[in-house]
């Protein structure tokens, strides 16, 4: 909602009419940042749900909250110089990778249970709970 509101405000500020693509370079940066964030959210939601359902809910929820803060940092950084958005982008990629690896670990555990009868769920939850605070390291 913040991104869309910022885009609408900048659109009205640039030309006084509704949403149009033409405008200042600042409007172009706001528009591009909004589009980048909008394109990243479906992937984020998919891996967040998979990690939460297949592996462990608490580390997935923590990573999800961190991702929302990181996207905010990316958006605000994108409005400044382009190099200011790079840390938020890289941090977001790391969180998505963590969620993806949690999903893969949950799927592998399911197949280990199905084929071999071995359950590593407790070990996987312990490892993901221990690793999730490491996401705070920039």
TrEMBL record:
It is found in: Endoplasmic reticulum membrane; Nucleus membrane. Required for leukotriene biosynthesis by ALOX5 (5-lipoxygenase). Anchors ALOX5 to the membrane. Binds arachidonic acid, and could play an essential role in the transfer of arachidonic acid to ALOX5. Binds to MK-886, a compound that blocks the biosynthesis of leukotrienes. GO terms for cellular component: endoplasmic reticulum membrane; nuclear membrane. This is Arachidonate 5-lipoxygenase-activating protein. Its main location: endoplasmic reticulum. It is a multi-pass membrane protein. The chain crosses the membrane at residues 46-70, 91-113. One of its GO terms (biological process) is leukotriene biosynthetic process. Keywords: Endoplasmic reticulum, Leukotriene biosynthesis, Membrane, Nucleus, Transmembrane, Transmembrane helix. Homotrimer. Interacts with LTC4S and ALOX5. GO terms for molecular function: enzyme activator activity; glutathione peroxidase activity; glutathione transferase activity; leukotriene-C4 synthase activity.
